[in-house]
Design a protein that fits this description.
This protein has about 425 residues and is mainly alpha-helical. The protein has 17 helices and no strands.
């Protein structure tokens, strides 16, 4: 359990003891703000790495002595090793249900050996099969263990295998492969929700987005992929506000982080004059144009609703301004992609520059006001990257370049001073 979750759980218990809340409310709060399932089951990253390295060592040992062994011995070694590690996993889980580190490690080694067994048996009997199917079977086994145990790390492993399966089908065999996206979406994401695992949710979201985009990019214009990815990013940010009121409120942080990363990267790329998407739309068909209208239109409606809701709920002014900037960026993107306007690329580039810079300033202000150093750091880093990019694009005079650095350095120095001063004031009041 993380230190923050541990602190909150102890505070809830204290509130119940002091009579501030009743027992039923305390239980509801404890379940609502439980620790990440991966952490609560004691799974450690070191155990996972150790299990993977150990499993690779066992596989390499088999490979080293493989040619000299008879077929019966080969099959016996595969099945005995596979069964042994899974049985050890079940036994250690049965002996101590609270500490699952060792059990998770044994099961992970067993799942790795299952995959090795698939390839080794194919080699023994010279099975000439469509090789990506091995990753499908291997991933399905890992996902099955993820649900049965249950285990977040098995879900992460299954996600990686499904990504490999889909990627090989698309890249090596030039196939549109929707099934890999469906399996991750309906198999992995619900498991992450059930386990309250933010790690698995993040891996699942990234896998779904990545596989979907690889599928789309193989069959449609590259510009349309950029528009769709942008829409996905802003919709994930909007969705994070909705899930904050569900039984898994911690998922909001994951959705917001993934969505903000996608949104920020696309917006930054669009600030370049010859950026990701050119001045004149290059969508190839009317169908692609319709997809653009639908995806960005839905995103615009969602954020218009967010802006209305935030106004009625009396959100902080800086937060409302950020929501307004997101809506503005969607409308600009929609305008650039859907209409053949006689506007130079420089105009759109400057608009995206202004939106991104405003986001950075508002993020710095909110972080300083709320004493959240992460927001201040991200705002400063992105603003610095934006200034550096424009430094190379727009300023040729050495004097102008020196002034840019002086202004940026002075601004960051002032932000650091203001943040420290506010934090000291809050500590004195406390």
């Amino acid at each position: 359990m993380s230190s923050r979750a541990d602190w909150l759980q102890s505070e809830i218990q204290s509130w119940v003891s002091e009579g501030l809340i009743d027992q039923s409310t305390g239980q509801l709060l404890k379940s609502r703000y439980a620790a990440d399932a991966t952490g609560s089951r004691g799974f450690s990253l070191l155990t996972a790495i150790g299990a993977i390295i150990f499993g690779l060592g066992v596989i390499l040992f088999f490979a080293y002595n493989w040619q000299s062994l008879p077929k019966a011995a080969k099959l016996a070694m595969i099945f005995v090793a596979l069964a042994a590690f899974h049985l050890l996993g079940w036994f250690t889980r049965y002996k101590n249900a609270e500490q699952t580190n060792l059990s998770e490690g044994f099961h992970l080694i067993g799942t790795m050996l299952f995959g090795a067994g698939i390839f080794l048996i194919a080699q023994i009997y010279h099975i000439d099969e469509h090789y990506p199917n091995a990753f499908l079977v291997w991933g399905a086994a890992a996902l099955l263990f993820g649900w049965v145990l249950p285990s977040a790390i098995q879900g992460v492993f299954a996600t990686a295998l499904f990504c490999a399966w889909g990627s090989f089908e698309i890249i090596d065999f030039d196939r549109q492969h929707v099934l890999s996206v469906v399996l991750v979406f309906f198999g992995v994401l619900p498991l992450a929700w059930m386990l309250r695992s933010r790690v698995l949710l993040m891996f699942g979201l990234v896998a779904v987005i990545g596989l979907a985009l690889v599928n789309i990019s193989a069959h449609v214009s590259g510009d349309l992929v950029v528009y769709i990815l942008f829409a996905v990013g802003v919709l994930l940010i909007a969705l994070s506000y909705a899930v904050a009121r569900t039984s898994f409120p911690q998922s909001a942080d994951v959705l917001r982080s993934v969505g903000a990363a996608v949104y920020g990267l696309i917006l930054f790329a669009m600030t370049f004059v010859r950026g990701v998407v050119g001045n004149i739309p290059t969508l190839d068909t009317q169908a692609e144009l319709m997809v653009l209208w639908v995806t960005l239109g839905v995103a615009a409606l969602a954020w218009a609703g967010m802006l209305v809701y935030g106004t009625k709920a009396k959100f902080q002014r800086t937060k409302l301004l950020q929501h307004g900037l997101i809506l503005l960026s969607i409308l600009v993107m929609l305008t650039q992609g859907a209409f053949d306007l006689l506007l130079p690329a420089m105009v759109f580039s400057l608009i995206y520059d202004a939106i991104l810079a405003a986001h950075c300033v508002l993020l710095i202000i909110r972080g300083t006001d709320n004493l959240k150093w992460q927001q201040v750091a991200i705002g400063c880093l992105v603003l610095g990257a934006l200034v550096y990019a424009r430094f190379n694009d727009l300023f040729e005079s050495l004097l102008m370049r020196s002034l840019v650095f002086v202004v940026l350095g002075a601004m960051l120095f002032f932000i650091g001073h203001l943040y420290s001063k506010r934090k000291l004031r809050e500590q004195n009041h406390a």
